[in-house]
Amino acid sequence: MTRTTEPPATPAKQVAASPRKAALSEGKKAERKLGLLLCAPAALIMVAVTGWPIIYSFWLSLQRYDLKFPDDREFIWFDNYVAVLSSPYWWNAMWVTVLLTVVSVAIELVLGMALALLMHRTLVGRGIVRTSSLIPYGLVTVVAAFSWRFAWTPGTGYLVALMEEGSAPLTEKVPSLLIITLAEVWKTTPFMALLLMAGLALVPDDLLKAAAMDGAGGWQRFLKITVPIMKPAILVALLFRTLDAFRVFDNIYVLTSGSNGTSSVSVIAANNLIRGLNLGIGSTMSVLIFIAVAIIAFVFIKVFGTAAPGSDEGGRR
Amino acid sequence: MGATRRYRLAAGVGAAVLAAGTLTACGSGDQGITVNVYKYNQENFQAIVDNCNAKAGGRYKIVYNKLPREADGQREQMVRRLAAEDASMDVLGLDVTWTAELAKAGWIREFTGSVKSQVEDGTLRTPLETATYEGKLYGAPDNTNVQLLWYRSDLVPTPPKTWDEMISMAEALVAEGKPGRIVGQGKQYEGLVVLFNTLVNSNGGKILDENGTKAVVDDKAVEALAALKKLATSKAIDPSFSNAAEDDARLAMEAGRAAFQLNWPYVYSAAQKKPDFAANFKWAPYPALGGGESKVTVGGINYAVSRYTAHPDESFEAVLCLRSAENQKIAATKDGVPPTIRSVYDDPEMDQAYPMKDAILQTLENASSRPASPAYQNVSTVISTILSPPADIDPKPTADRMRKELQDAIESKGVLP
């Protein structure tokens, strides 16, 4: 470790580590150091605002901690997890959430694709078509949910008036779930369409024309050319929407507030945490939701190979 | 660069000084003491506040902060701010079922000394009971409420005295092809808990023990479950019962489907808008179960003083004024909420707004309160979930399940639905 031997050793190491990269000049090094320094505050704040709450809620989930009984606070390891995972209410909420997610995302994919094709192909009034189809996405979810609630409430509703006299669909489980799905689909299909449209722009017209010349029909061109080229965009759209749909809260909160077994996992967590003041059980549910979301993201990225559209690696299979 | 940095530093210090200035301005100071009252949206409450402000003569000023209409929304907002030790809330308008929870959490102050004796003086027993937890007074009853039996005098010449009598009278009417149905609150919500609590107490049973620490659900409660099932499966029950809240029951009777209705007194003023219907719309005490008098569940609002208030003395004084006999009369005649001070009922002005005041008073004298437990929210959720739909009740097994889940609920062990 003398001054004479050190300088040549550093480039040699770097060459060995990454043969394609040239040694960094002094200027580049300084620039990189400055870059890191400039990033540091932002990175630290990110860790503080995302990392700390996660750690704190995990810490809370290991305690019996109910604001109603402040004297009974104690550390109980994983008892809260046992209580939540053995509760039929939790599993009902879990299945409701999974069902809502799968059904609404599937419908959104089909409708969103149709809408994207429509927006992509429209020649006249493209701006108007795009703008008008984006209106539902532009509305605040709570506002939209309230308008759905009033529409389905006897007395104020125009939609409930179409049903049999005396029916109140938002007071029964299955009709409520159908209405929640409808509200979700109506609200987020434009978002799906927007992401898919970005994917459609990647499909070269020449390829489609060549396939048409070879005698491929419209359906064949769509399935064999458009969809495979769009695959990264479709997967990203599905990932975004699945993660979003799994955390569904506002629509359910406004439409039924979780009565008649229509709670999603987020609603039941909020009920226990904010209404029930049970920080232990509520945090346990939050941690479980976090794990479920992480699993969904993992499956999409590792199993289906989702990656950002246009990134050169294109994900691994 | 040095200049810019110095400028930024100066700006930062300036901002901090400004912020500190605004913060201190928020506390008490030049403008005198403010007592913030948080209460549900009561139409003519501002008039009462103005009365009290005039009486305070500038020593403090009461400000009315409106909370949402729905009970859950009110509780959520207050509880969240109390948990954050918010010093800007002084007086809280609490639903009668929240006393235990907020007292146990240490969020509201005990009433002691002369303030306590002034609250207790002349106040009806059951409303006072709802403001008491573990033998200490934590609230001052503002208004109370009890359900009555409402019936159509053109179909029912003499009102039924007992639960079974009501059901058999209604069934006879229905068999004759007359609109003799019974309407009430059978939806999965607090209203169903109120109905169940009335039946259990009338029959001499218990849901929780005295201290609210143990789930009892005794044999008398099992009989109450059977009575509820009998109503829900009777030929005379309205088909919408399992989805009906207060207003659904009222509308069903006004639409001419029912001859009997179990509901709060507000249905009387609502009925006056339909003179034909109102002419035959009469009231009677709640039908009794298991001999003796019925013990009807009380509702209503109590005032409490936040633990985090900076002005406890002024807050207690404001509470005494807001619930004074004079102001309770204003609330009763203008907003239709029954008073908690006995003497207000004797005021001649009450006769017009409250022709049923004797029935209310008679019911109040024997009324019952809902189980006092810090975990009442959990208790209520469990009861309404288990009882819903009421037609599916199987008295003995339902009671066993309720006992088990209630025990978990009061220990805050279980998961809330």
Concise structural overview:
The complex is a heterodimer of chains A (317) and B (417). Helix content of chain A is 70%, strand content 1%.
What is the secondary structure topology, with strand pairs?
The complex is a heterodimer of chains A (317) and B (417).
Chain A: H1 6-17, H2 26-61, E1 63-64, E2 74-75, H3 79-85, H4 88-121, H5 126-138, H6 141-152, H7 173-200, H8 205-213, H9 218-246, H10 250-255, H11 265-275, H12 279-303
Antiparallel strand pairs in A: 1-2
Helix pairs in contact in A: 2-12, 3-12, 4-7, 4-9, 5-7, 7-9, 8-9, 9-12, 11-12
Chain B: H1 2-26, E1 33-40, H2 45-56, E2 60-67, H3 71-83, E3 91-95, H4 99-104, H5 113-120, H6 125-130, E4 132-133, E5 136-137, E6 140-145, E7 148-152, H7 163-175, E8 181-183, H8 190-202, H9 219-233, H10 246-254, E9 258-263, H11 266-271, H12 275-279, E10 281-284, E11 299-305, H13 312-322, H14 325-335, H15 349-353, H16 357-365, H17 376-387, H18 395-410
Parallel strand pairs in B: 1-2, 1-3, 8-9
Antiparallel strand pairs in B: 3-11, 4-5, 6-11, 7-9, 7-10
Helix pairs in contact in B: 8-9, 9-18, 17-18
